[in-house]
Amino acid sequence: MPEVSVIVPVYNAADALQRCIDSILNQEFKDLELLLIDDGSKDGSPIICDKAAKKDERVRVIHKPNSGVSSTRNQGIDLARGEFIQFLDADDWIPQDSTKMLVRCAREKNADLVVGEFYRVVGDKLSRKGSIETDEVLTKQEYADFMKVSPADYYYGVIWNKLYRRDIMNQYNVRMNPEVSFCEDFIFNLEYVLHCERIAALQVPVYYYVKTDGSLVSQNMNPIRLYNMKTSVYQYYDRFFQNLLDEEEYRNERINIASFMFSAATDEFVNPLDPGTKKVGKEKPGVYFGRDDSLISQAYYLNKVYHQYLNTAAMKNDLELSDMRLFAFVEYQKEVTCHSLKEICDVTGLSEPTVLASGQKLVLRGYIKVSLHHDSVTLKVNKAEQLTHDLELVRSDLHAACFQNFSEEEMKEFTGYMNRISDNLKGILS
């Protein structure tokens, strides 16, 4: 059985569907099944789905008459075989490490629900969006306290930035309500959270959400109809807190809970002037694919993948890639004594201003400790258990990426060659 079931409802999404499918099947995490559920599409979507199933045995396609997204997702849940369930919309796509990061977080923290950050995409621009900054495991009450601050935030309402446990869905019959056409995913999340004991927030973007003109948020809906629909959703929201809190707590929180009616549903618009706004593709280290027949090209790709994994670890800890590169240098050596700033720059490949800025940040956060001597400076890892743990995962992922599909004998043989190459290169540099 697959570890993860990825469910994608499909309805007339031919223009973007292939990108969505490719992003799932090209995940670093391979132990998954993809359920493409064609909800009576009238364009080329069914053909795209069937072609994907022929190319990859992990893909299952279901064609059915149109019944709406909620019943389509429910059918996906009923057919799923994975321990975890991940949802995507056919217009969107996910980063290559999305499923890996979600499952890893669920495993490490024994979480019933993992909530990740996401990229909001408008045209060729994107912006990173998140809400919960703590990496501590949350109870459902603590999660609800965060949600009360901004209950209409997509971060809490949508299902595509989350990882769910299938056994909880089945044990408590948590399903979408096909009769609800507004915030049906938010209502689903409220029901699911009630049955969670441990919830984890992942400070890494796990989804690319593309704003479409067909969404309710983008339509100029009749104010009366919008109010009536929101009142209906509020009944679920209010009932959620009645079930979550005892009578006195609920009474004390009534005003905060009622503020839901005045919170505007937002999908976090991208502001082109925001420093965090980037062009799509610039959110990760760039790469140039040239000739692959030289040691130089292999070293280049190895370095790029390493930086890509480091960048994810940096985002998880609210750091920049340059910060992680400097910390990785210090952590690997455990203790570094340098006689000039240039020595650090030579090893890390960072400029002097970058080393100074990153060093200052790491010192202020207590990750490294600096000792000044007469003619040298010593850098030493301080209290950085989480960073050290994440670096170990980076090295493990890099090793797995390099040696995937290698037999044990091939790995042993290759390691021997690499040791000989290292000895040769050290001889030249010594």
Short description:
The chain contains 16 helices and 12 strands. Strand 5 and strand 6 form a beta hairpin.
Entry keywords:
single chain, alpha/beta, Spore Coat Polysaccharide Biosynthesis Protein SpsA, Chain A, Arc Repressor Mutant, subunit A, 2 domains, nine-stranded mixed β-sheet, three-stranded antiparallel β-sheet, 16 helices
Q: Report the β-strand fraction as a percent range.
A: 15-25%
Distance between the termini: 52 Å
Query: Are there runs of 5+ residues with pLDDT below 50, and where?
Result: 214-220
| CATH architecture heading of the largest domain | Alpha-Beta Complex
The CATH class designation of the largest domain is Alpha Beta
Structural class: alpha/beta
Give the SSE order as H and E letters. EHEHEHEHEEHHEHHEHHEHHEHHEEHH
- Note the overall shape: globular
Give the overall pLDDT as a whole number. Answer: 87
Give the total of domains. Answer: 2
Q: Do you know the CATH topology of the largest domain? A: Spore Coat Polysaccharide Biosynthesis Protein SpsA, Chain A
Number of helices: 16
- Give me the count of strands: 12
Q: Can you identify the CATH superfamily of the largest domain?
A: Spore Coat Polysaccharide Biosynthesis Protein SpsA, Chain A
Major sheet: size, sense and barrel closure? 9 strands, mixed
Helix content: 40-55%
